[in-house]
Amino acid sequence: LQMNNLNVNVASSIAHDADDLVNLLSPLEQEVYDALNLARTNPLRMKAQVKRMMTFLDHDGDLVFEWGKVETIEGHEAYLDCIEFLDKVKMTEACHLNDNLLDLAKRLVIENIDDGSNCISGHIEHATEDVIAEYGHALTYKDSVEYGPWESGIDFIIHYIVDDGDKSRKNRNHLFDPSTRYCGIALADHKLY
C-alpha cells in the first residue's frame, strides 16, 4: 500500500465533520486518519501502540509478523527514540480533511501507480506547480509517502512516528507540526511494494 498523507496549511479550504468522512475515505484511509489524530491529540495513547509494535521486534531489530518480516534500519533504537519523543511532545489539535487535498493525494497516488516506471514518484514535490494549482493554493505543504505492508491505519502512523532510518525524523515532525491543520489521505496497492 502507498499512503500519501498531505499535511497542508491552506489559506481557503473546506473542512469536514466526522459524519462526512464515510463518503470521502476508504475504511483503511479512515483508520489512518483516526490514527493520525490519535497521535496528535493523545500522544501517550499512541505511545502504548508503539510499545505494542515493539513486541514484534526480533533480536536483530526486525519486525516479525504472522504474514512476514519487515526489516528495519535502526531497530530497537528507533522505537525507543519514538517513545521518548511521545513522552515529551505536546498535544496538538486534530487535522481536518480537505476536499482539495484529498483529490490531490488521490491523483498523486494514482499517477505514481499508473506511470509504469516503477519509480517512487508519489511525493508532492514531484508534482508540477500547475498540478498543485488545480487543487487550490497552500501557504505551505508537506507530505509523507509510505510503501509498506501495513494492514491497519495505526501501523501506518506508527511507522511515520518511528521514522526508522531518517535521523531527522522528517515524517514524525510533519505529523506533529501544530501549524498543520488540514490533510488529504490516499491509499492504493502498488505493484512493487
What does it look like?
This protein is an alpha+beta fold and about 190 residues long. Helix content is about 40%, strand content about 20%. It contains seven helices and six strands. The strands form two sheets. The protein has a four-stranded mixed β-sheet, sandwiched between helices. Strands 2-3 form a two-stranded antiparallel ribbon. β2 and β3 form a beta hairpin. It is globular, with a radius of gyration of 16 Å.
State the helical fraction: 40-55%
The side-by-side strand order for the widest beta sheet comes to 4-6-1-5
Terminal-residue CA separation: 7 Å
Based on Cα principal axes, name the global outline: globular
The fraction of residues assigned to DSSP E strands is 15-25%
Q: Structural class of the secondary elements? A: alpha+beta
Strand tally, please? 6
Name some characteristics of this structure.
single chain, 193 residues, alpha+beta, two-stranded antiparallel sheet, 7 helices, disordered N terminus
SSE topology sketch:
Blueprint: E1 2-10, H1 27-41, H2 43-54, E2 63-65, E3 68-70, H3 76-88, E4 96-97, H4 99-114, H5 129-133, E5 138-147, H6 153-162, H7 170-176, E6 182-188
Parallel strand pairs: 4-6
Antiparallel strand pairs: 1-5, 1-6, 2-3
Q: Can you give me a brief rundown of this structure?
A:
This protein is α+β, with helices and mostly antiparallel strands and 193 residues long. Helix content is 40%, strand content 18%. The protein has helices at residues 27-41, 43-54, 76-88, 99-114, 129-133, 153-162, 170-176, and strands at 2-10, 63-65, 68-70, 96-97, 138-147, 182-188.
